[in-house]
Design goal:
9 helices, 6-stranded mixed sheet, binds adenosine-5'-triphosphate, Rossmann fold, alpha/beta
């Protein structure tokens, strides 16, 4: 079997007395969409922040694309990207200016004209072309989410980390974004890890689901495996069972 694209072992993050992430381990194979699920405060954002190198783990290891992220993240960051509703792009810059600045930061090929071409292409693809001249701070929450995703796809990443990629989107736009992500994964073979509170989204997109509670991974599997293990018809019900600590037989500790 080929090397997993994301491999995390015994990963822990403490903030003082709080253990936000508690010794988790998981592996995401190439071309898989993996979903991190869990209630508020379960540790999803902290996990993604450590994968990106925005937070230093207290202990444990993270490998992305075969590189140790704690030692050599500069080698893989050009092949990664992320979007999060919690990270704002500069408000006063227009959408075009923001995307252009990021295009240059990512060192996109083709110099000035290459960046201009890619910005136009991605703006078209994510249907943000009509906002290009607007200051980013004046966009609606849903429009900002789309621009953040456009920014995340500028460098055609092989590894995409998404924190609630469809937060604040109306159902139609959210559906459209999911289709876009599915197509992107299929066409590029990219590996995607996303945190989501939207069970339908996870059921539709994810080949691997990691259920977090209190900083730990308390269960995992394909959506179909989880439905079967809990004897449920929807992931929403599985989520509630896990959140409320109701197990329906099956594996007691699937964390390793
Ligand atoms: N910078 C920080 N300082 C102290 N505690 C933190 C910090 N960041 C997160 N925490 C705590 O770590 C725990 C996990 O938070 P995290 O943001 O990772 O959860 P989450 O699963 O992403 O939640 P949500 O679904 O609400 O976004 C929470 O108890 C949170 O209060």
């Amino acid at each position: 079997m080929s090397q997993p694209v994301i491999k995390v072992d015994h990963l822990t993050k403490r903030f003082g007395a709080i253990t936000a992430v508690d010794g988790i381990g998981f592996a995401v194979p190439a071309g898989t969409v993996a979903g991190l699920l869990g209630g508020n405060g379960a540790g999803k954002t902290t996990t993604i922040s450590m994968l990106l190198g925005l937070l230093l783990p207290t202990s444990g290891t993270i490998e992305v694309l075969g590189e140790d992220m704690l030692r050599h993240r500069h080698r893989v960051l050009p092949r990664m990207n992320f979007s999060s509703p919690y990270v704002d792009l500069p408000h006063r810059l227009t959408v075009a200016e923001n995307l252009t600045v990021y295009g240059h930061l990512y060192g996109l090929a083709g110099g000035l004209s290459g960046v201009r071409r890619r910005v136009a292409e991605i703006a078209e693809a994510l249907d943000v072309a009509r906002f290009l001249k607007k200051p980013t701070g004046q966009l609606s929450a849903g429009q900002k989410t789309r621009v953040a995703l456009a920014k995340a796809l500028l460098n055609r990443p092989d590894v995409l980390l998404l924190d609630e990629p469809t937060a604040s989107l109306d159902p139609d736009t959210a559906d459209w974004i999911r289709t876009y992500l599915e197509t992107y994964r299929r066409e590029t073979g990219a590996t995607i890890l996303l945190a989501s509170h939207n069970m339908l989204e996870v059921e539709r997109l994810c080949g691997l689901v990691l259920m977090m509670r209190g900083g730990a991974i308390v269960d995992r599997g394909t959506p179909a495996e989880l439905l079967e293990r809990y004897g449920r018809d929807t992931l929403e019900d599985v989520f509630l069972d896990i959140a409320r600590d109701r197990r329906r037989g099956g594996v007691a500790d699937a964390a390793e």
